[in-house]
Amino acid sequence: MKPRKLHIKSYGCQMNVYDAQRMVDTLAGEGFVETASVDDADLVILNTCHIREKASEKVYSELGRLRVAKDEAAREGRRMNIAVAGCVAQAEGREIINRAPVVDVVVGPQSYHHLPQLLARAEKDGRALETEFPTEDKFAFLPPPKPDKIRARGISSFVTIQEGCDKFCTFCVVPYTRGAEVSRPVAKIVDDVKRLADHGVREITLIGQNVNGYHGEGPDGRTWSLGTLLRYLAEIPGIVRLRYSTSHPRDIDEALIEAHRDIPAVMPFVHLPVQSGSDRILSAMNRKHTADDYRRAVDRFRAVSQDIAFSSDFIVGFPGETEEDFQATLALVTQIGYAGAYSFKYSPRPGTPAADMQEMVSADEMDERLARLQELIDSQQSAFNKAAIGTTVDVLFERAARNPGQIVGRTAYLQPAHVMAGESIIGQVLPVRIDSLERYSLLGELAGPLPTLAPSGTQPSINSSETRMGA
Ligand code: 5AD
Ligand code: SF4
Predict the structure, then answer these.
(1) Whole-model pTM?
(2) Where in the chain is the domain with CATH 3.80.30.20?
(3) Which class is domain 388-471?
(4) Is the CB of residue 169 below 6 angstroms from any atom belonging to ligand 2?
(5) Residue 105, annotated as binding a ligand
(6) What pLDDT is attached to residue 136?
(7) Residue limits of the MTTase N-terminal domain (predicted)?
(8) Rounded distance from Cα 174 to ligand 1 centre (Å)
(9) How is 124-184 classified by DSSP, letter by letter?
């Protein structure tokens, strides 16, 4: 049978990137192969994001373009199926088909293991929609990726360990689109990580909407937290780096702090969103922590290692935010000192409590606050990057860079680092002497002798000790 072609486009967070890969793995079993072009695709999936208005509107402009491609395919006598997956699918359901009749399948983030059946239904009945939260766990039904797929995806991989959120921050759609917090059992995660490691993956980022709220069933029948899980995964041969994202400041337990203290594979870079530095706004956001709680959380990490750097998310212009509240955010940023951060203008999301709040901050004020915050964060980020110059840092090499002869990898802090070297270093952690900085990228030279060369990605590398960077 001729393979059918699948084009998938993901928007939004890391979870969507991971989900898109799992959809590809699921559809591979149905004879689908990926294509980079929309025009020759038999199936186009838009894996959508609902977090802010801009993100969710993108899907409709893309659907407008897809209508043209679908008509063109029909003129050639081909059927092009169009599926909308992800959080817009969950939030808007049938409304998507009403607004964009070009869509054949709508599938929510908890149901994409049913894609083959939904496609069959769409071919038969013209349309198929599934946005229920099924009782079964989709992960139990998703086929694992094939070895060649794992290799093609590179040496760093995401693994979902937890999904959904019970925190109900008043601005956020996630509890509605992704549902209640569910943790996957440890044994399943270990199987996934071992398979990835066996086929060349060296770095795992454990992902979840509230990843440090992880409370999965351990092999001993007890509930394991993220710290315990990290300790276990660090023992898997081949895994040299572990990361996790995104964390909530309230769910930091001692096991996580100890994991940072004891396990070299746990990277000293923590994404810990705070959203605002004003207690009044944090309370209106229902964050369930104060700015001081957040400062204390950061201190707990720093108490076990001064090397730990932080990134965060911020929202400016939440309803009722005054200049004084905003000043408190700037003060917090100044005090913590970030290696980087994402900042967003508040966007009211239908169905969330904040969407009904009055006292909207004007668009001009939001723009102005965003610019001021970003300027402060940029200056912290560039100071952090500059501090690497002249130091020796460990880099996990990922792939050949655009410039011939250069290989690019990442430091512990996810900074891209380039060296001139052979491709045999891909998959290894090696010390690099940093000479200069070009925009966000570090340039340097391999420091010290190369370890015995092995074909890339076939042998676990030594995780040499992370060299302290002055942050
Ligand atoms: N408006 C603006 N930013 C938002 N985020 C979540 N919801 C909204 C919203 N309604 C931001 C938060 C969150 C990040 C993923 O997106 O900062 O941490
Ligand atoms: Fe959204 Fe808050 Fe849950 Fe994060 S913790 S996913 S911001 S509701």
Answers:
(1) 0.92
(2) 139-386
(3) mainly beta
(4) yes
(5) no
(6) 78
(7) 4-124
(8) 9
(9) HHS-EEE-S--SS-GGGTSPPPPHHHHHHT-SEEEEE-EE--S---TT--HHHHT-S-EE-
